[in-house]
Structure formats: structure tokens, C-alpha cells
Amino acid sequence: MTDTSILLIEDEPDIANYIQQVLRAEGWTVTLHAQTKEGLHAAKANPYDVFIFDRMLPDGEGLEMVENLRANGIETPVLMLTALGNSENKVEGYQRGADDYLAKPFEPAELVARISALLRRSRGHVRTDLRMIDDLEIHDKARTAHRAGQHLKLSPKEFDLLIYFADNADALITRDMLLRDVWNMSFDPGTNVVDVNIGRLRRKLDGDHKTPLLRTVRGLGYTFGPE
Amino acid sequence: MTLSGWQTVCGLRTEITNQINDDVASLSEVYLTQGPDAVDVAISQRLALSPLSRAGAHYRFEDQGGLPRSGDLSAAITQSSKLTDPTIVQSTNFGSLTLRATVFQGGETLIVARENSAIRKAAWVQLRNTLIGLVALIALAALIAVRATGSLRQRIGQMNDTLDHVGKGHLDARLPETGQEDELGALASHINGMIGRAERLLNLRKRVTDQVAHEMRSPLTRLDAALLKAQSNTRADPALAKARAELKSSLRLLDGLLDVSSAEAQQGDRRNLEPVDLAELGANMVELFEPVAELRGQHLVLEARAKAVVDAAPAQIGRLISNLIDNALKYADPNTDIIISIDTLGNKAVLSVANQGPQILGELRSEIFTPFFRHPDMAEKQGHGLGLALCRSIALRHDGTLDITPNPHLTIFTLTLPLTEQS
């Protein structure tokens, strides 16, 4: 994705440098501003694929920028990357128009995963009724899945999970993303409940197969697809 | 007859006696100055007036021999009235009369009378006029009162509407201040001042919480980035990974404390609440946690006995219920059921999570909701001891309660929340 351009609004130089390093390592182009006034001007003047906004900026609040841009018809995906990371802050962020919300300090891989997910979502993807991933077949409309010809007995939620993984094949999927997008929860239950659910899906999906499709990325989340 | 009516009659009786006396004096004057014939003329003139104009006056003027000279009273009426004091007699023609006689120096007798019915008529007229006045006064007072009450009701209605709006979390709402310098005007001004202070305090609370988070997380972000860089530059030193894990644990503690203080500070703040169906949320939670229960040989049972919709912040209530279920799973005996029941009681929604396992007894039932409290028998479990403190502060933030319901066999956490007005 060498043509991906990101607008970053971050006022703390050390943190801004760190974020830029992480993003540039992915081959993405980053434009940095430290204040909302310059940031808004840049956001309106140039096309970007993703905005990354801090919240407590010297001349304003990042969420006000989001509201301003949305009011001006600019629907570019916004990731809030901020020190304001408690539940109340996150709920407020989503309510005021942010597409994703990540608290500092963050795992570099998680930041990349979140940006990638936003890019996938904004660029859209064509979903076919029948999908083949290695020896896995997924029928969307019939809501059935087969692995090596064997029918997988999945609960409705497990099928939703499988579809989500298939839609985001080869990408890092974090626990937060699963809670938000599959369970529709904007809070972290603070337990290993996601891991247990994925574990159950993995037993049904991969079982004794030699090539596992669902893999854990230690401390971060999961990836899906043949290695 | 009313007291005022009776007083009127007494007053008129005196008045009529006075009129008779005046009449006698007037005709005596005529007699003395003009002679008896002039008295006849004067009596005829008076009787020519209408009965109402002459106020029921009747006369008899007789000569020395008792023969009538003028007037309209018969001799029979006047026989008993030789006395000069006013006397009441019955007349067949005029009904009850008050009369008085006087004898002139020439031997003529003058009798002047007034119909007593005139007293009643006059009293009735006076009373009627009084009543009409009174009714008019009452009508006027009622009109003024209705207008004043209408205005008062409208202003109180506006105040109620605004306060209801404020109660639902719109702290920017203010009572209309019309500039009227009355008690309601002063009340509106005071209430507006209080709402303004509440709004400023809530905003200040959020600013302080946000500032604390910002001031702590920003340096930790730099520290974490430095640790990560050190990890990538050197051979993986286990101490660095441990330092990052400690840092994340501290952040979870910070977030937990901020969440507790945020929920506590939000008590009474009903902004951003929306209808949440507890049965639906409970079903989602059961679906999420069922695989965890299955691993431990436990089973989650949802018993939704009533539709219970509450005004809530979905993320907070979801977190509360997930904490209760997570706790129940951790502390329940293996191979037992965890029952999540949803019911209503009056205007309250009641959600309880019950499990079999170690009992929480006595004072521990209230202490367990204190931040950092760890049950002595459960100290080996991970966490900072903030989960139940957060749960209770979330319950209180929604005007609800969270307690342990005593039961000899089960540990039961019971959450009550007010049902939505629509429920």
C-alpha cells in the first residue's frame, strides 16, 4: 500500500516521531501537524486515506476536528489515538464521529492493524457467496462452512466470527476489534473471554488439520488464512 | 336571613320610624303655619305619588269629632293608635303598618303610617344589591384569580418542563427568566444558578479526569516506546518484557480507578443514557461467556421473566453485568449452574446473578464493594480489587442499587435499576 497517505495530528514531538516511524515502516506516507487549525486546513485541502487525531491539543480538541470535518462532508476514516483512554472517553469518541479509538500507550502492531482495518473498510471489498480459503469453503447466504469436505457445526456467533476473519484474511485482528465488530461491545470485559470463544472456534475449524487457519499473535490478537 | 340582612332590617326599622317622625313634624309645621286645609292638600299630594316613591306612606287626618278630613287610612286602624309612640298594627288593605298619631292644638288628629312590607322590600332590595355586589366582587376576584392562576400555572409548567429536561441530562437547559420581580422569578434565578454550578462542576470533573489521564499516559507512552526500542535493539532481555507488562498492569489500574471515579462523579448525570433491554443484553452476555462456562463444566442459565427496559449507558451496564457473570464463573463450584434472572418489581428492573460457591458473609457483604478490597479466601485470583467497586458505582450512577442478597446456599448479586418511563 505505497499509495496510502495518512494525516497525523499530534502535538508531542517524541510521540509523533514514534508514530511516524511505525506508519512509515508500512510504506505509508505521513503528514504531521501539531495543531487543530493547521490540521483542519490540511484535511480539507488534500485527500487522505486515514486521519489519526490526538485529543488534547494545544489549540483544541481532536473530536471537534472530527465533527467539523463530518459537518463539511468529509467522511475519511478517523482513528483517535489519545491518552484519554477510559471507557467514558471511548464512548464519547464513537458518539462524536470517530471510526476507531486507540489509547496510548499502544502496541505498534495494533496501530497498524487498526489502520489497515479502516483502509479495508473504506476501500470496500467484494464479498462473494462462496469463498474458498485453502480447503475451507464458506457459503455466506446458507451460513454454512465446510473444511476438507466436512461440515462444521458452528453456532450463529461462531459463524459471524468466521465471516469476520474471512473478510479480514491475513490481517492482524485484535481482541478489541472482535468485541466491537462481532459482539457490538465498546468495552473490554477484562477477561480472557474472547480467547476462549476463539479457542472454541479454532477447535471446530482447525481440529486435527495439518494447516491451521486461525493463529494467535501473542499479546495482540489473531490472524486468519493459510500460512 | 343572613346576619347582615338582619342588621339591615333593624336599621331600616329605625329608619322608617325616623321617616314617620319627620313626616309628622313636617305636616305639623304645615298645620301651624298654614292651617288644617293645607295639611289636607299636603296629604293628598303625597298620596298622589306612587307607592314606591312615597315608601309605603299612608295618612289619616281627622277633625275634632274623629271624622276623616283626608288620607287613605280607615278609622278602624287608627283607633288603637291614639298614642304618640310608633305602633305596629295590621291593616286589611295595606298589611302590617307602623304608625304614629299626633293631636294638633285645634283638636285635629294626624296619623302617619308606613307599610312594614316596605321594610322587607327595602331590605330585600338592599340585600339583593349587596348580593349582586358580592357576586360581582366574587366574579371579579375569580376572574383575577383565574388569570393569575393561569399565568402561575403556565410559569410553574415551564419550570417543571425545564427541570424535567435537566433531569434527563440536558444541563444546558435554563428556566425562563421573565424579569418579573416576584417569588417565582427569584426561584427561577436561584435554580438557574444551581443548574449552572452543577454543569460547571460536572465539566470540571471531566476535565480533571481527562487531565490526569493525559498527564500520566503521555509519559508512559514515551516510556513504553523506549522500552520497545530497547527490546528491538538488544538481545531480548526478559526484564524489558517484564517492565512492559508491569507498565500495562499499572495502566489497567489507572483506567480502573478513572472508571470508578468517573462513574461515581456521573451520579445524577443522565446525559447519554438510552433505553437498554436487560433481557437482550443478558442474552448477549450469556452467549459471550457460555464457552468459558463450558470449559469449567459450568452452565449459564438465563431466566428472563419480564421485559425490563432501563435508561442506561450501554457500555457501563454491559460492563457491570459482564463483571458479575465473570465473578460468578470464577467463584462458582465446578459443574454447577449460574443463574442470571431478570424480573421487574414495581417500577424497578431486577437482575440477579446467582452461583453456588464460597459464601460471602456478614460485613464482607458491604466491604466487598470497597475499592481494592480482596476477599481473604480469593486472594490468589488476579486483579486489583476494583471490579465490584466499579459495578456498584455504575449501579449508583444509574440511580440503582447493587447488593448481595442473603441466601443460605447461593451467592446472589442483585442489581436494581429504575425502569424507563415508557415501561
UniProtKB/TrEMBL annotation, chain A:
Natural source organism: Algimonas ampicilliniresistens
OmpR/PhoB-type domain location: 128-226
Protein name: DNA-binding response regulator
SMART domains referenced in this protein's UniProt entry, alphabetically: REC, Trans_reg_C
List of residues that carry 4-aspartylphosphate: D54
PROSITE patterns reported in the protein's UniProt record: OMPR_PHOB (PS51755), RESPONSE_REGULATORY (PS50110)
DNA-binding region: 128-226
A Pfam short name: Response_reg
Keyword Ribonucleoprotein: no
Coiled coil: none
Domain Response regulatory: 5-119
GO MF term (any one): DNA binding
